[in-house]
Amino acid sequence: MRANSSTSGSRPRRKVRARTTAAVGVSLAALAAGATTGTGTATAQPRDAAPAAADCSAAYRIEKKLSGGTTWRMCWRYDGKAGLVLEKISYQPKGETKPIRVLNSARLGQIHVPYDDGSVEYDDLTGFGFAQGLMPLKATECPGGTIKSVKVPEAWDPQNPNVKGLCTTTRARGHAYRMQGDTANKVYAAQGQDLLVYTVNQVGWYEYMTEWRFQDDGTVTMNVGATGSLSYDDYDAGDGRGWPIGKGDRAKATSHSHNVFWRLDFALDGSTKNRVEQYDSTVSAPASGDRAPRTRTSVTKVTKELTGDAKAYRWWRMVSATGKNKDGHARSYEIVPGVTTKYPGRSYTKHDLYVTEYDKCEKFATHNPGCGNGHPKSVDKWVGGQALKHPITWMNVGFHHIARDEDQQPMPVHWQGFSIVPRDVTAMNPLTPSELAWQNGHWQPRS
Ligand SMILES: [Cu+2]
């Protein structure tokens, strides 16, 4: 089924196009915090499965040992609405004898696109064929990597449901660390390397790149990049406030928002019973006798479903129910929000983070189609005071797109996203060189 634009009445903006048509596009350039860029490449070939990871068949397995000695393993599948879904994601830095499970499942939860003039809004995943718009990638679009064939459910062309559209590759990240040693001629330095997993999905005039970046230091960054082309049908700026694109002042591109949701199902050390904590710090003026202001950090245990708002000096972490690192500290992953413009126009986009108790029918943050009658359709309504035994993390990252002349043509990729960063998953930097492995805690210099 092709994108259904009937909901926009006489002004369809989700233009239906043949899959062979190349799309072009525009978007503001603003790299989301946490995204690291790099240009280096290396081969990412499927390796022989370790027995521990062999819970999906070879065709659906992604496994890569990165140059720093870290191995990421996961399974993938392709959902008829969510598109790429990564499952059973584990991280094994050098020095760990077995993979450490991080996530049970990681996927998009919605791309919500409301237009500023109030004429229309889109739920791209659940309503406009995001998954069916999977684009085939050429080898040059997956440099140094492997492109897997994806069978698209409910493909628009049922005779040809297979699309070579899933790229796995590696990319250089630049310095992982640098440290001057005790002697002037000894420098400890390493270049980081990331595993990248991505697809491109066309929705109307836009193409969305869904990128998952698994770093050799344990960080995972998920980004959606909007590219393709500004919507041809959206140069009317019905509110008179769009941005003029092209000569003079006639063709005003209508401004709009892209509100992207991710759904993460953590399973640290293999258990979904993760604990949620929120940290807040307050800074107070110097007390008499102090030379500087004081900062106090406090933790709030989040035991019930949460509606969270990012702000300075606030962060959250998911804590393992069972696992500790070699220092005896509970393993956890910190949630690091990216740059966002929170859209206040809908109840579900009013907050940055939602943590809900697992319910198997709750798959999409808005316009959720899977639950029965009477069950609310959006994530904000699922936060209802239930105790968290199996918390599901929903992150909302918004971008207000006021088009600019540079958005044509094609539209430069605009990224939005966030990261999860290991906190005490290993006892030291997972990339620590062996000569420094003894320098843990309040160590004494050796003479
Ligand atoms: Cu846009």
Description:
By secondary structure, this protein is mainly β. It has one domain (24-229, 256-401, 410-436): Copper amine oxidase, catalytic domain (Beta-galactosidase, Chain A, domain 5, Distorted Sandwich), CATH 2.70.98. Helix content is 2%, strand content 42%. The chain has 2 helices and 22 strands. It has helices at residues 124-127, 379-382, and strands at 41-42, 61-65, 71-79, 83-92, 100-114, 121-123, 146-151, 162-180, 187-203, 206-215, 220-228, 243-244, 252-253, 256-266, 275-284, 294-302, 306-308, 314-324, 330-336, 353-357, 391-401, 411-423. The strands form 3 sheets. Strands 1, 7, 8, 9, 10, 11, 15, 16, 18, 19 and 22 form an 11-stranded antiparallel sheet that branches. Strands 2, 3, 4, 5, 6, 14, 17, 20 and 21 form a 9-stranded antiparallel sheet that branches. The longest helix is centred in the N-terminal third of the chain and has 4 residues, at 124-127. The protein is globular and about 75 Å long. The protein binds copper (II) ion (CU). The site of copper (II) ion has 5 residues, from strand 14. Its cofactor is Cu cation. Residues 60-430 form the Copper amine oxidase catalytic domain. Its EC number is 1.4.3.-. Belongs to the copper/topaquinone oxidase family. Residues 1-32 form the signal peptide.
- Give the CA-CA distance, first to last residue: 72 Å
Number of strands: 22
Mean pLDDT: 88
Domains (count): 1
CATH architecture: Distorted Sandwich
CATH class: Mainly Beta
* DSSP helix fraction: under 10%
Content-based structural category:
mainly beta
CATH third-level topology = Beta-galactosidase, Chain A, domain 5
Question: Can you write the helix and strand succession as a string?
Answer: EEEEEEHEEEEEEEEEEEEEEHEE
How is the biggest beta sheet arranged? Answer: 11 strands, antiparallel
- Rg from Cα: 23 Å
Q: Number of helix segments?
A: 2
- Share of residues in strands: 35-45%
- Small molecules held by this entry: copper (II) ion
